[in-house]
Design goal:
about 0% helix, mainly beta, about 120 residues, 11 strands, single chain, seven-stranded mixed sheet
Length: about 120
């Protein structure tokens, strides 16, 4: 069983920065994709960024140039550095670990950006 624990959310003013961290524990394949999703009130959950175990990354158009996803495979940890935050980035941010036979989610961390 895999568990994901997110941290780093909070309240920040527009233009500010936050760094989210997600630590995975349990049985983890060396081949996987770690991702950040977010869900704003009244909206569907959307993909923010992904990073593969091979090092590839991908971003939603809305965060390109502002957010950076990175990972430390030795610590089974994924990070999301968020810069130039805007009120529309306000959401609950979820970590996801996709492995050959499973998909696991964290409990989410709230990010609130005030104008």
């Amino acid at each position: 069983q895999v568990q994901l624990a997110e941290s780093g959310g909070g309240l920040v003013q527009a233009g500010g920065s936050l760094r989210l961290t997600c630590v995975a524990s349990g049985i983890i394949s060396s081949i996987n994709v770690m991702a950040w999703y977010r869900q704003a009130p009244g909206k569907q959950r959307e993909l923010v960024a992904t990073t593969t175990s091979g090092g590839s990354t991908n971003y939603a158009d809305s965060v390109k140039g502002r957010f950076t996803i990175s990972r430390d495979n030795t610590k089974n940890t994924v990070y999301l550095q968020m810069n130039s935050l805007a009120p529309e980035d306000t959401a609950v941010y979820y970590c996801n670990l996709l492995q050959p036979r499973s998909s696991s989610w964290g409990q989410g961390t709230q990010v609130t950006v005030s104008s």
